Amino acid sequence: MLRKVEGIVIRTIDYGETNKIVNLFTREMGKIGVMARGAKKPQSRLTSVSQMFIYGHFLVQTGTGLGTLQQGEIINSFRGLREDLEKSAYSAYIVELTDKLTEEKKTNPFLFELLYQTLNYINEGMDLEILTYIYEMKMLNIAGIYPKLDGCVHCSKTQGKFAFSIREGGFICHRCFHIDPNLIQISPATLKLLRLFYYFDLHRLGKISVKDTTKKELKTVISSLYDEYSGLNLKSKRFLTQLDRFKP
Ligand SMILES: [Zn+2]
Protein backbone atom coordinates (compact mmCIF):
# COMPACT_ATOMS: atom_id res chain seq x y z
CA MET A 1 0.00 0.00 0.00
CA LEU A 2 1.27 3.47 -0.87
CA ARG A 3 1.01 5.89 2.03
CA LYS A 4 1.97 9.47 2.65
CA VAL A 5 3.27 9.99 6.17
CA GLU A 6 4.67 12.87 8.21
CA GLY A 7 7.88 11.77 9.84
CA ILE A 8 11.35 12.38 11.23
CA VAL A 9 14.46 10.38 10.29
CA ILE A 10 15.68 8.77 13.53
CA ARG A 11 18.20 6.26 12.18
CA THR A 12 19.97 5.48 8.93
CA ILE A 13 22.03 2.41 8.08
CA ASP A 14 24.04 2.02 4.90
CA TYR A 15 22.88 -0.97 2.91
CA GLY A 16 25.07 -2.17 0.09
CA GLU A 17 26.89 0.21 -2.24
CA THR A 18 24.09 2.65 -2.88
CA ASN A 19 21.14 2.06 -0.55
CA LYS A 20 20.16 3.12 2.94
CA ILE A 21 17.71 1.69 5.41
CA VAL A 22 15.95 4.61 7.03
CA ASN A 23 13.98 4.48 10.26
CA LEU A 24 11.27 7.08 10.41
CA PHE A 25 9.21 8.06 13.40
CA THR A 26 5.88 9.03 11.88
CA ARG A 27 2.73 10.67 13.15
CA GLU A 28 0.48 8.14 11.42
CA MET A 29 2.27 4.81 11.95
CA GLY A 30 4.81 5.28 14.71
CA LYS A 31 8.24 3.88 13.89
CA ILE A 32 8.73 2.33 10.46
CA GLY A 33 11.76 1.10 8.53
CA VAL A 34 12.02 1.82 4.82
CA MET A 35 14.57 1.02 2.14
CA ALA A 36 15.79 4.13 0.34
CA ARG A 37 17.21 2.83 -2.92
CA GLY A 38 20.07 4.88 -4.28
CA ALA A 39 20.09 7.21 -1.26
CA LYS A 40 23.87 6.94 -0.92
CA LYS A 41 24.40 8.37 -4.40
CA PRO A 42 24.83 12.15 -4.28
CA GLN A 43 22.55 12.76 -7.27
CA SER A 44 19.66 10.60 -6.06
CA ARG A 45 16.36 12.33 -5.29
CA LEU A 46 16.26 10.40 -2.00
CA THR A 47 19.69 11.55 -0.75
CA SER A 48 18.70 14.78 0.99
CA VAL A 49 15.51 13.38 2.54
CA SER A 50 17.35 10.35 3.95
CA GLN A 51 19.63 12.30 6.27
CA MET A 52 19.38 12.15 10.05
CA PHE A 53 16.81 14.44 11.71
CA ILE A 54 15.06 15.41 8.46
CA TYR A 55 11.44 16.29 9.14
CA GLY A 56 9.16 15.93 6.16
CA HIS A 57 6.43 14.17 4.25
CA PHE A 58 7.38 10.74 2.96
CA LEU A 59 5.69 8.58 0.38
CA VAL A 60 6.25 4.97 1.40
CA GLN A 61 5.27 1.63 0.00
CA THR A 62 4.37 -0.47 3.02
CA GLY A 63 3.83 -4.18 3.37
CA THR A 64 4.50 -6.87 5.92
CA GLY A 65 8.28 -6.40 6.00
CA LEU A 66 10.54 -3.46 5.30
CA GLY A 67 8.80 -0.74 3.30
CA THR A 68 10.24 1.26 0.43
CA LEU A 69 10.74 5.00 0.34
CA GLN A 70 9.39 6.34 -2.93
CA GLN A 71 9.64 10.06 -2.40
CA GLY A 72 10.22 12.66 0.24
CA GLU A 73 9.54 16.33 0.70
CA ILE A 74 11.37 18.28 3.41
CA ILE A 75 9.29 20.41 5.79
CA ASN A 76 12.23 21.38 8.02
CA SER A 77 15.71 20.02 7.41
CA PHE A 78 16.79 20.75 11.02
CA ARG A 79 20.18 21.53 9.59
CA GLY A 80 21.53 22.90 12.87
CA LEU A 81 21.12 19.45 14.38
CA ARG A 82 23.66 18.01 11.96
CA GLU A 83 26.10 20.92 11.79
CA ASP A 84 26.60 21.82 15.44
CA LEU A 85 28.48 19.22 17.48
CA GLU A 86 26.58 19.71 20.73
CA LYS A 87 23.13 19.95 19.15
CA SER A 88 23.94 16.93 17.06
CA ALA A 89 25.06 14.90 20.09
CA TYR A 90 21.93 15.74 22.11
CA SER A 91 19.63 15.11 19.15
CA ALA A 92 21.31 11.78 18.50
CA TYR A 93 20.54 10.79 22.08
CA ILE A 94 16.90 11.93 21.84
CA VAL A 95 16.29 9.90 18.68
CA GLU A 96 18.22 6.84 19.89
CA LEU A 97 16.21 6.81 23.10
CA THR A 98 13.02 7.00 21.03
CA ASP A 99 14.20 4.28 18.68
CA LYS A 100 15.18 1.90 21.48
CA LEU A 101 11.99 2.40 23.51
CA THR A 102 9.42 2.08 20.74
CA GLU A 103 8.10 -0.83 18.75
CA GLU A 104 7.58 -0.79 15.00
CA LYS A 105 4.21 0.37 13.68
CA LYS A 106 2.82 1.36 17.04
CA THR A 107 1.08 4.67 16.49
CA ASN A 108 1.70 7.34 19.12
CA PRO A 109 0.86 10.85 17.89
CA PHE A 110 1.66 12.33 21.31
CA LEU A 111 5.17 10.98 21.18
CA PHE A 112 5.56 12.19 17.62
CA GLU A 113 4.57 15.68 18.69
CA LEU A 114 6.96 15.54 21.66
CA LEU A 115 9.85 14.39 19.47
CA TYR A 116 9.17 17.02 16.84
CA GLN A 117 8.82 19.80 19.40
CA THR A 118 12.01 18.76 21.23
CA LEU A 119 14.12 18.70 18.06
CA ASN A 120 12.59 21.98 17.02
CA TYR A 121 13.56 23.58 20.34
CA ILE A 122 17.09 22.15 20.07
CA ASN A 123 17.34 23.58 16.57
CA GLU A 124 16.23 26.98 17.87
CA GLY A 125 19.00 26.96 20.46
CA MET A 126 17.09 26.34 23.68
CA ASP A 127 18.85 24.80 26.70
CA LEU A 128 20.02 21.36 25.57
CA GLU A 129 20.27 19.83 29.01
CA ILE A 130 16.83 21.01 30.13
CA LEU A 131 15.21 19.79 26.91
CA THR A 132 16.89 16.43 27.39
CA TYR A 133 15.70 16.11 31.00
CA ILE A 134 12.15 16.98 29.95
CA TYR A 135 12.26 14.40 27.19
CA GLU A 136 13.67 11.76 29.52
CA MET A 137 11.00 12.46 32.14
CA LYS A 138 8.30 12.16 29.49
CA MET A 139 9.76 8.92 28.13
CA LEU A 140 9.76 7.19 31.53
CA ASN A 141 6.28 5.72 31.08
CA ILE A 142 7.18 4.44 27.62
CA ALA A 143 10.19 2.78 29.23
CA GLY A 144 7.79 1.17 31.71
CA ILE A 145 8.94 3.34 34.61
CA TYR A 146 6.27 4.99 36.78
CA PRO A 147 7.91 7.07 39.51
CA LYS A 148 5.79 8.39 42.36
CA LEU A 149 6.02 12.17 42.16
CA ASP A 150 2.80 13.33 43.86
CA GLY A 151 3.82 12.55 47.42
CA CYS A 152 6.04 10.32 49.49
CA VAL A 153 6.54 6.93 47.87
CA HIS A 154 6.31 5.24 51.29
CA CYS A 155 3.64 7.13 53.31
CA SER A 156 2.02 9.27 50.55
CA LYS A 157 2.34 12.46 52.64
CA THR A 158 2.76 15.62 50.57
CA GLN A 159 4.24 17.88 53.28
CA GLY A 160 7.77 17.90 54.61
CA LYS A 161 11.32 17.74 53.35
CA PHE A 162 11.83 15.45 50.39
CA ALA A 163 14.65 13.44 48.86
CA PHE A 164 14.58 10.99 45.96
CA SER A 165 14.72 7.25 46.39
CA ILE A 166 15.77 5.33 43.29
CA ARG A 167 15.17 2.01 45.01
CA GLU A 168 11.61 2.93 46.03
CA GLY A 169 11.00 4.81 42.77
CA GLY A 170 9.94 8.29 43.83
CA PHE A 171 10.05 11.16 46.27
CA ILE A 172 10.47 10.21 49.87
CA CYS A 173 9.68 12.42 52.88
CA HIS A 174 11.90 13.10 55.90
CA ARG A 175 9.72 10.84 58.07
CA CYS A 176 10.63 7.89 55.85
CA PHE A 177 14.30 8.65 55.07
CA HIS A 178 15.35 5.66 57.18
CA ILE A 179 13.92 3.09 54.75
CA ASP A 180 16.50 3.85 52.04
CA PRO A 181 20.16 4.39 53.00
CA ASN A 182 21.01 5.53 49.43
CA LEU A 183 18.73 8.54 49.08
CA ILE A 184 19.58 11.30 46.64
CA GLN A 185 19.31 14.67 48.40
CA ILE A 186 17.50 17.23 46.25
CA SER A 187 16.59 20.89 46.59
CA PRO A 188 12.96 22.09 46.48
CA ALA A 189 13.72 23.53 43.00
CA THR A 190 14.72 20.10 41.70
CA LEU A 191 11.62 18.52 43.17
CA LYS A 192 9.43 21.11 41.49
CA LEU A 193 11.12 20.70 38.11
CA LEU A 194 11.02 16.89 38.15
CA ARG A 195 7.29 17.10 38.74
CA LEU A 196 6.82 19.83 36.15
CA PHE A 197 8.81 18.00 33.47
CA TYR A 198 6.82 14.82 34.06
CA TYR A 199 3.37 16.37 33.94
CA PHE A 200 3.37 19.56 31.87
CA ASP A 201 2.79 20.06 28.17
CA LEU A 202 6.01 20.84 26.28
CA HIS A 203 4.17 23.34 24.09
CA ARG A 204 3.91 25.55 27.13
CA LEU A 205 7.65 25.73 27.69
CA GLY A 206 8.71 29.35 27.86
CA LYS A 207 12.04 30.78 28.84
CA ILE A 208 13.41 28.64 31.60
CA SER A 209 16.51 29.37 33.58
CA VAL A 210 17.89 26.70 35.87
CA LYS A 211 20.92 26.92 38.16
CA ASP A 212 23.83 24.56 37.48
CA THR A 213 23.47 22.90 40.88
CA THR A 214 19.80 22.15 40.12
CA LYS A 215 20.74 20.77 36.70
CA LYS A 216 23.23 18.48 38.37
CA GLU A 217 20.60 17.13 40.74
CA LEU A 218 18.13 16.64 37.89
CA LYS A 219 20.73 14.73 35.95
CA THR A 220 21.62 12.51 38.90
CA VAL A 221 18.01 11.55 39.59
CA ILE A 222 16.98 10.99 35.98
CA SER A 223 20.13 9.11 34.92
CA SER A 224 19.91 6.91 38.01
CA LEU A 225 16.29 6.04 37.20
CA TYR A 226 17.23 5.02 33.67
CA ASP A 227 20.34 3.14 34.81
CA GLU A 228 18.37 1.23 37.41
CA TYR A 229 15.16 0.44 35.52
CA SER A 230 15.40 0.90 31.74
CA GLY A 231 17.98 -1.75 30.83
CA LEU A 232 19.35 0.64 28.21
CA ASN A 233 22.99 1.38 27.52
CA LEU A 234 23.03 3.86 24.67
CA LYS A 235 26.08 4.81 22.64
CA SER A 236 24.76 8.34 22.18
CA LYS A 237 24.40 8.70 25.97
CA ARG A 238 27.99 7.63 26.54
CA PHE A 239 29.07 10.20 23.97
CA LEU A 240 27.18 12.93 25.84
CA THR A 241 29.00 11.95 29.01
CA GLN A 242 32.35 12.25 27.23
CA LEU A 243 31.34 15.59 25.75
CA ASP A 244 30.44 16.81 29.23
CA ARG A 245 34.02 16.29 30.39
CA PHE A 246 35.28 18.85 27.90
CA LYS A 247 33.02 21.58 29.15
CA PRO A 248 34.75 24.44 30.96
ZN1 LIG B 1 6.99 9.42 53.93
In short:
The protein is built from seven helices and eight strands, in the order βββββααααβββααα. Helices cover 36% and strands 23% of the residues. It has a five-stranded mixed β-barrel with strand order 1-2-3-5-4. It has a three-stranded antiparallel β-sheet with strand order 7-6-8, with helices on one face.
Major sheet details: 5 strands, mixed, barrel
Bound molecules: zinc ion
Name the strands of the widest sheet in spatial order.
1-2-3-5-4
Q: What are the low-pLDDT stretches, counting only 5+ consecutive residues below 50?
A: none
Number of strand segments: 8
Query: N- to C-terminal separation?
Result: 53 Å
Helical region count?
7
Helix fraction bin: 25-40%
What structural class do you assign from the helix and strand content? alpha+beta
Strand content: 15-25%
Mean pLDDT: 95
User: What string gives the helices and strands in order?
Assistant: EEEEEHHHHEEEHHH
Shape: elongated
Radius of gyration: 20 Å
